[in-house]
Amino acid sequence: MAFIEKAVVFLMMTAFQVSNSAVHKVGDSAGWTIIGNIDYKKWAATKNFQVGDTIIFEYNAKFHNVMRVTHGMYKSCNASSPLTRMSTGNDTIKITNYGHHLFLCGVPGHCQAGQKVDINVVKKVSAEAPTPSPISAMASPVPPAPSPNNGAPFIVVKGALIMPLLALALSSYASLGISLLVN
Ligand SMILES: *[C@@H]1O[C@H](CO)[C@@H](O)[C@H](O)[C@H]1NC(C)=O
Ligand SMILES: *[C@@H]1O[C@H](CO)[C@@H](O)[C@H](O)[C@H]1NC(C)=O
Ligand SMILES: [Cu+2]
């Protein structure tokens, strides 16, 4: 019993993790470098970049930097007027919008040697349900009825998770009622 409950909780936490934002270290363990001919195009192609994700550039700040550039500058490895410039050796970028986020190393010769990366953030196409508006969420604080073939442990765990949510929803509902009365 206890094992099944733990397993269910673990599965639920894993499910939540999937929708959470990810952290991507450019070049993985190799980092941001010209040593080893890292193929950053290949690296980026294996990732699924999403809005909210974090990109980390880790490198030796004595030898490299990170510049965010336009498409034209990216193509021609022109580092003369970057949009932004970072040089801490451990630069973190939070993705806030869709599209191409283009970076190169501004040290002469490095971009030409392949130290450039295109972080292409595409819109998620999954059939994830849209977040309900606060009003409709408050107006229907009824948990879904458990299906008849659910095992008992699952219902226990589900109930344990749903009760605080239900209490929260009910209290919001109550405060909504009060504010409606006040108005
Ligand atoms: C690099 O970009 C700057 C600014 O856009 C431009 O003035 C310059 O001519 C470019 N250099 C080369 C080599 O293309
Ligand atoms: C880089 O920064 C991240 C947090 O943003 C930290 O977890 C990591 O340990 C840092 N790495 C180095 C080498 O300082
Ligand atoms: Cu470099």
Automatic annotation (TrEMBL):
Entry-linked Gene3D superfamilies: Cupredoxins - blue copper proteins
SUPFAM superfamilies per record: Cupredoxins (SSF49503)
Range of residues in the leader sequence: 1-21
InterPro entries registered for this protein in UniProt: Cupredoxin (IPR008972), Phytocyanin-like (IPR039391), Phytocyanin_dom (IPR003245)
Residue intervals passing through the bilayer: 161-182
A GO cellular component annotation in the UniProt record: plasma membrane
Listed Pfam families: Cu_bind_like
Name this polypeptide is given: Phytocyanin domain-containing protein
Domain Phytocyanin: 22-123
Gene: LOC100305939
Lineage: Eukaryota, Viridiplantae, Streptophyta, Embryophyta, Tracheophyta
UniProt keywords, alphabetically: Copper, Electron transport, Glycoprotein, Membrane, Metal-binding, Signal, Transmembrane, Transmembrane helix, Transport
GO molecular-function term, one example from the UniProt record: metal ion binding
